[in-house]
Every structure is written in structure tokens, then in C-alpha cells.
Amino acid sequence: MRYEELTGQVQARAQLPDRQAAERTVRATLETLAERIPGGLADHLAAQLPAEAAEPIRRVIASHEGSPEQRAHHRDHGERFDLTGFAGRVAWRAESTEEEAIREASACFEVLDSAVAPELMEKVYGALPNDIRELLPAARAIQPKDAGAGGAGAGEAEGRGGADG
User: Where is this region: Disordered (predicted)?
Assistant: First the structure.
């Protein structure tokens, strides 16, 4: 999928006023997602996206280029934050409210789901806690097959009520 197509679909699905708002949403969502999932997985995601969409992910990966221990930690683990933290980061980056950020990030996930290999998206979704999975397309919002293995964030969403409310 070309970058213009990706941002155009996000703009339409999130009902954003213009292409610039869609680009901010894509950038904000992908940067925040790259912080939340393991760096190696983020790198695989970036490899399947157009260069303009991959750039925010690669910037996050590069920002974790500290000591060997820091690099290894981020390669294997993402930062830990829940839906509230995710929405707050997306809102700040996209210059929107948290409510708008949730709606816009959900639209971005829908478009990513159709733009990236299904197997990779399964792994991305498996690395997210239950409450962030609520943003996913309905077909993917169910628990991935390997989520029971204690993927990144497994169990940390329960304090917010998780998907069961």
C-alpha cells in the first residue's frame, strides 16, 4: 500500500478534516505503537510499510540505541503502558483529545490490518495488553492464539476492567 493510500484511508475512516491530520494520526499512532511493542517486532512492522510510515517507527527504534543492555531490553520488550497511556501519547503527538486519539488510532489499526501481512499483525496484537486490543478491528480484537503465553502486558489490563468491562 502506498503512503498516500494509507493516509487517505485513515483520513476517511477517522473522519479527519484533511490529509495533514491523517498524517499526524498515522505518525502519532505508529510512534506510540513502536514504543509499546518489542523493538524487533517494530522493525518487522516498519519493513512492511511505505518509507514515510516506517520513518516514525525507525525513529523510536533508534532512540533506544543506548547501552547494550538498553538495546537488548527494548528489542525484547516494549514499554509498559495501558490504553490510557497509549491514548495520552497519541493525543499529545497528534494534537487531539484522548477521545479523538482512541477513535483515530482505531482507524489507523484498521488500515494497518489490511496493509501488513496477517501473521505480523497477529504478533503485533499479541504483544499488546487487552485494553489496547480494544482499538483493533473487530475480527482481531479477540485474543490471539499465543496471548495466553503471557505476552507483553498480559494481565496488566485487568486493573482497568479489560475487554470484559
Answer: 1-22, 60-80, 144-165
Cα 61 to Cα 14: distance, rounded to the nearest angstrom = 27
Burial of 116: CB neighbours in 10 Å, binned 0-12, 13-18, 19+: middle
Domain boundaries, the chain: 3-140
Domain 3-140 carries which CATH code? 1.10.490.110
Whether the CB-CB separation of 57 and 49 falls below 8 Å is answered with yes
Per-residue pLDDT, 111: 95
Distance of CA 48 to the CA centre of its chain: 14
* Residue 99 CB neighbour total at 10 angstroms: 10
* pLDDT tens figures, 29-75: 999 999 999 989 999 999 999 999 999 999 998 887 665 665 555 55
What pLDDT is attached to residue 135?
81
**Torsion angle (degrees, nearest 10) of CA 138, 35, 27, 141:** 0
